[in-house]
Amino acid sequence: MRHALVRPRTFVRGLLGVGLALLAPVALAAGFQVSPTIAEVAPGVRVASFELRNPGEETLTIQVDALDWTQSAEGGDALAPARDVVIVPRLATLPPRGSQLVRIAVQGEVARERAYRLRLREVPPPPPPGFMGVRTLVEQLVPVFFQTAATADAVEWRVLPGAAGELLLAARNAGGRHLRLSGLRLVDPRGAVLAERGGPGYVLAGQSTQWPLDTHARPARGDAVRLEFLSHGEARSIPLQVE
């Protein structure tokens, strides 16, 4: 399962700026690969390593940063520059079909699980002589967790009505470990799917968050429902009541 978030970034070269993008006959697509795409670092281990690979035929330069990762009860992730980690190197050069090892080391005592996103951004190279077109660059955000001896999450769930008629799923993790989940859906007592959410999701240790669900049918307040999802390869099923 791939967990690195990939964000394409487009740069336009030429005298007409953005307007040229609509007419450009040439588009250069570059990219790189990272392994692993998620790092869950064991207690007592202070360094995580990643291999960056360049499958293409031209040299790539990758800028590497670490971002503190937090969540809010209103939903959404917050990312800010991390000041308690060391990254080597911060600028990686990948030769054609070559690779480079990148390490992130945490500083200070890890008294609670720390969550980061390793941000890998392709640096735009000089354009080829005479090139007029679009080049798409890649940015990846890789989840990194430095864990403690705490081995379990402890998530409290709530099903709430949304302002636009959708259902909201609120989560509060009182445990010492993040929860990673996928295939999330809400079903009624007969097993009919009421709402669902695609893609992977996280509830960070000691954090709260919420998600709007793709709602097919909205149950009444007080109705019994069941939350189902996969976490670390394990199926979970949790009885809830709509608030």
Automatic annotation (TrEMBL):
GO-annotated cellular components: outer membrane-bounded periplasmic space
Signal peptide positions (record): 1-29
Top-level taxon in the UniProt lineage: Bacteria
Keywords per UniProt: Signal
Domain Pili assembly chaperone N-terminal, chain residue ranges per copy: 32-147
Coiled-coil stretches: none
A GO BP annotation: cell wall organization
Protein's name according to its UniProt entry: Molecular chaperone
